[in-house]
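Teaching assistant's notes for section 4

Start the section by putting this record on the projector. Ask students to predict, before seeing the second block, whether TIGR02611 family protein will look compact or extended. Collect guesses on the board.
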Amino acid sequence: MARGSRLLSWFDRTGSELLGWTLVVLGLFMLVLPGPGLLGLVGGIALLARHYHWARRILDPLHEKAIEAARYGVATWPRIVLSALGAACIFAVGVVWWVDVRIPRFELLGLDFGPDLPADTPATAIAMWGSAAIAWFLLGYSVWKYRYGPASRMPSTSRSNEGATD
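Reveal the predicted structure now:
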């Protein structure tokens, strides 16, 4: 057996499972930290669905809801523009974190804040820029697929009618 096929065989089972669990754990952390937490969770579940029936049961309704949300989000131009502006706001907040803005000192629920922003590191700004880039990419993909592509002519959103490209 060649080295490449052994590596591919290892990734098919062990590597994809390890990557799936890693994405699930990172996704959970990114739900409360800056970053695309839901995307990490869904990506991890998608990889785990190759190996576990419980993950497939979670992924199928998520897939249906994601397609429904993508179609709804790009149904009108105002929604598309608002989505793009939302990603621009996330990008702008990343710029604020990057330039190290000072904030006034204040207390909230017994916790002291200021003069530095919480999680005041370049990694926070980079995570926000990455989130904005992912949002723009997914918005562009949804516009292409559900407004102009072959999926725009499909009346149903069922997974069996979508094909294997989703």
